[in-house]
Design brief:
By secondary structure, this protein is of the alpha/beta class. The protein contains 12 helices and 14 strands. It starts with a strand and ends with a helix.
Length: 335
Amino acid sequence: MIEVRNLTKKYGDHKAVDSLSFTVKQGEILGFLGPNGAGKSTTMNMITGYISATEGTAEIDGHDIFEEPEEAKKCIGYLPEIPPLYGDMRLLEYLKFVAELKKVKKSKQKEMLDYVMKMTSTTEMKNRLIKNLSKGFKQRVGLAAALIGNPEVLILDEPTVGLDPKQIIEIRDLIRELAKNHTIILSSHILSEVAAVCDKVLIINKGKKLVIDTPDNLSKRMGGSSGVEMKLQGEEGMIKKALLSIENVTDVSINKGKREEGKVYLTVYSSSTDEDALSEAIFYTMADKNCPILQMRPAAMSLEEVFLEVTKEDTNYMSRKKKRLLEKEKEKEEV
C-alpha cells in the first residue's frame, strides 16, 4: 500500500532524510520512531506530498506522490503534529469545509460527517467554536478531518498529543479499529502506545533507517539472548548456584531493587533460543532444591530500551549490529 524508495531531503548541505526506503502492507500499522530532529515529520510531509523530495519517491496504492499527486493524495488522510484548524469556525462547519476540499459528494456529506464525528467522539462539540475547544478535542477534530473521504492510508503524526490517559486509550482503540479498513503510519513519543498498537516499528536517526521489524522481534534481536524473569522462595546464594549449573545458562542477575523477606527476584540468561527448554530445566532444578517458583515470565527488552540502544549517538549501531552477526556466525561454526 505504501512504498518508499531512496527518499532523500536536503537543506543545503544538511540531509534531513537520507536514502530512506521501506514498505507498509495493506492493513498494517507502522510505528515510526526516532529522536527529535531524526527526520520523521519531514518524511511524512514528503509521503503526503506536502513538501518535495530532493531524491527518491513514494508510492501510495501504486500512485507516485510526485508524478500523480492528485491521485495519490486521494488515498491519504493526514493528521500533522499541529492540526491546521481554523479557530473561528465551528467544528461541524470546519468538517464541512474539509469535505468540500476533498470533493465529497453533497449527498454523502452528512453521512460522512456523522460517521467521523462519531468515530472521534466529537458529535457533542459540533456547534462549538474550535478556538474554545481543549487541546485534546482539537486533536480529535484533526483526526476527524483526516478520516473524511475514507482514505486507504492514514498518516498520523503524534495523534495522542494533549490527550488525557482515558482519551489516549480511546484513540488507541480507535486506531486498532481503523486498521481493519486503513493502512496506518503512526508517529509517537509514547513508546508503550506504539508497542501496544503497531504491527511493525521503524526507527530512524539522522534521517537514516536503523531497524524495521515487529516489536517482539526487535526485543529478541536486541536482547541477544533468551531469558526469564523470576520470583522464587528460598536462599539467594543456593538458588543462584543451582541456576548457573543449568546447561546453556550464561548469567543469573539478582534484582537488588526488589526486596521481600524469603523471596528472590532475578533474571536468568541463556545462550539458547529455546525458551521452553530453558523454562522446563529451571522448573525441575528448582523443584529438586525445594524452591517454589512464584512468578516466571520471558525477559525481553522493552521498546524503550530498544529505542535507546539503537539511537545512541556515542556508538555506531550498524558496526555493533555487524559485530553481533559475526559473533553469531562464529558460534554456529563452533557448534
